[in-house]
Every structure is written in structure tokens, then in C-alpha cells.
Write a structure and sequence with these properties.
The complex is a heterodimer of chains A (about 190) and B (about 100). With about 190 residues, chain A is mainly alpha-helical. Helix content of chain A is about 75%, strand content about 0%. Chain B has a single domain, classed as Helix Hairpins. Classes of the chains: A mainly alpha (about 190), B mainly alpha (about 100). The interface between A and B is large, with 92 and 74 residues.
Chain lengths: ~190, ~100
């Protein structure tokens, strides 16, 4: 919470390096682990480091929310489903269609490389170069984000709660319906 | 840190997520890769929000997180119901919509 620093201090740089290394290493481990449980744990590492990065951006509310929702709720969901669908992959990267997939990754990599190159080239432009000036006091806290959420963004906020309700009902329906069919089919 | 450093991390994370979606065949890991992509988007939103000194980016990040939760719930429900009927979590083997 360096509300006063204009330039990047050494401590900030080190914190950023450690956290972004954690994010990228966690992400890479998530997509390379063969066992889904280790993938979930790597995902948790990624999101914890990401919450740290959010905190360095003065987004305290979002950092807390990230931990609560991802490391709490979504992680538990994933672990439960991994327990139900516990099949280790025999071929983590299937041979079938490997060429097409590799071409896809190559194409995506090219696009991302070009964008990253563009960002790196244009890093002198004011929006990208600036170590942002210290934000106003209260920037990113629960009260200020919450005030915005309940004034200017009240309608989208209600819409998102409707979306969550639909997701919950849909989740229940999707899993319940089939079970009833199944049990009625067994006798 | 300057904003572009955050944007580069966000890009790299999004690329990792995209590779996961394209390369892996385990439904669960594909869903996790989608979560990685959404998280990369959140990071970019917050970085620009900080650079512009505008908290609207935070509001949108809240929406992205809520969306990710809804997506995980519905996606995992579909995985479970597909697994009940097909006994597989491999995307290549799930190629018909019929139950």
C-alpha cells in the first residue's frame, strides 16, 4: 500500500517479480500436470499470486475477492468434481489431431508475441509507461468500489446476481435431471 | 511498476490459458485454462484501472469474477452429467450431443 511513492522502489520491483513468477509458473503447472488434483493446486497458487499482484495495484477489494471466490469457492468445486471424475490422463497430449492443435498454439503464440512486442515497443507512451501517480485515498477499497457498484452500476450488478441465480439453478438441473432418468432406468 | 509490465504478465497468462484450452484433452483442465484466461483479463482491467486512476475497472473486474464463478458452476455441472452417461472426461470422446 504505497500511496505515496511515485517511482518504482526496489521492494516493489522484487515483489512484482516474485508474484508474476508465481503467476506464470502456476499457470504453466496447471496446464502441464497430468494429475487433475495437482493442476487444481497449481491453479490455487496462480490465483494466490494473482491476488498479490492485485494488491500491488491498490485493488485491495479485488485481491480479497479473488482469494474468496477462486481459492475458496471455485477451487472447492473443482476438487469435488475431480474426486467424482477421477481419471488420470493416459495421454495428456493426445496424438490425435496433434498437428492441428500445434498449429493452433503456434498461431495463438504468434498473435500474442506480436501483441507483446507491440506493448514492449510502445511502452514509452504515457498510459503504459507511467508508474501511476498515487491514487486518491480509498482507491480500490471495499467502500469506494461498493459505492460505485451500488450507484452507477446498480443495474449491471443486479443483472450479474440474476446470472448467478441462473447458473445455480442450471447447475442443479443439469446434474439432477440425469440422475432421475438413470435411477428410473435401472429397474 | 509501470503498467506495461502488468500487461505483459497478463498477455503471458492469457497465452498459457489459450495453450491449455488448445492442447489438453481433459475437460477439467480445459475449464481451468478458461479460468486462467478470465483471470488474465481481470489483471489487465485492474492494471489499466490503476493507470487511469478510475475505479470503473474494478467494477468490471468484479463482474468478470462473478462470471467466472457462474461459468465454473455450469461447466462443472455439464462435466458431471456427461461423465455419468459416458464415463469419460476426455474431450475427444465426447463428440455427440445426444444423451
Amino acid at each position: 500500500m504505497n500511496l505515496a511513492a511515485h517511482t518504482t522502489t526496489l521492494a516493489e520491483t522484487i515483489a512484482f517479480a516474485i508474484l508474476s513468477a508465481g503467476v506464470l509458473a502456476g499457470g504453466l503447472m496447471t496446464i502441464t500436470r497430468r494429475n487433475p488434483v495437482s493442476a487444481v493446486m497449481s491453479l490455487v497458487l496462480t490465483f494466490a499470486a494473482l491476488a498479490g499482484l492485485f494488491a500491488t495495484l491498490s485493488a485491495h477489494f479485488l485481491a480479497v475477492l479473488q482469494i474468496l471466490v477462486y481459492a475458496g469457492a471455485i477451487m472447492v468445486l473443482f476438487v469435488f468434481v475431480v474426486m467424482m471424475v477421477n481419471r488420470e490422463e493416459t495421454t495428456p497430449i493426445a496424438r490425435l489431431g496433434l498437428v492441428v492443435r500445434a498449429a493452433g498454439v503456434l498461431a495463438a503464440g504468434t498473435v500474442f508475441y506480436r501483441v507483446a512486442w507491440l506493448v514492449a515497443r510502445e511502452r514509452a507512451m504515457p498510459l503504459l509507461a507511467a508508474t501511476a501517480p498515487p491514487p486518491v485515498v480509498g482507491f480500490g477499497t471495499v467502500s469506494s468500489v461498493g459505492a460505485l457498484l451500488f450507484s452507477d452500476f446498480l443495474f449491471p450488478f443486479e443483472a450479474i446476481s440474476l446470472l448467478l441465480l441462473v447458473a445455480v439453478v442450471g447447475g442443479v438441473m443439469l446434474t439432477r435431471h440425469l440422475r432421475e432418468n438413470r435411477s428410473s432406468r435401472i429397474p | 511498476m509501470p503498467t506495461y509490465a502488468y500487461i505483459l504478465v497478463s498477455l503471458a497468462l492469457f497465452f498459457i490459458g489459450t495453450s491449455g484450452v488448445l492442447l489438453r484433452r481433459n475437460v477439467l483442465i480445459v475449464l481451468m485454462s478458461v479460468e486462467l484466461q478470465l483471470a488474465a483479463g481481470t489483471l489487465a482491467l485492474l492494471a489499466f484501472s490503476r493507470a487511469l486512476g478510475d475505479q470503473k475497472g474494478h467494477v468490471f473486474a468484479v463482474f468478470v469474477i462473478a462470471l467466472a464463478a457462474a461459468e465454473a458452476a455450469v461447466g462443472l455441472a455439464i462435466v458431471v452429467s456427461v461423465f455419468r452417461t459416458r464415463r469419460t472426461a476426455n474431450l475427444d470422446e465426447v463428440n455427440v450431443l445426444k444423451g
